[in-house]
Amino acid sequence: MTLAHRLDRVLARAEEVRHILATAPGAGIGALSKELAEIEPLVAKVEELRAATRARDEAEAMMADPEMRDLAEAEWLAQKDRVPALERELQLLLLPRDAADERSGILEIRPAAGGDEAGLFAAELFRAYQRYAESRGWRFELLDYDESDLGGIKGATAEIAGRGVFARLKFESGVHRVQRVPATETQGRIHTSTVTVAVLPEAEEVDVQINEGDLRIDTYRASGAGGQHVNKTDSAVRITHLPTGIVVAMQEEKSQHKNRAKAMKVLRARLYDAQRQAIDSVRAADRKSQVGTGDRSERIRTYNFPQGRVTDHRIGLTLHKIDRVMLGEFDEIFDALIAEDQAARLAAEAA
Question: Model pTM?
Answer without folding.
Answer: 0.77
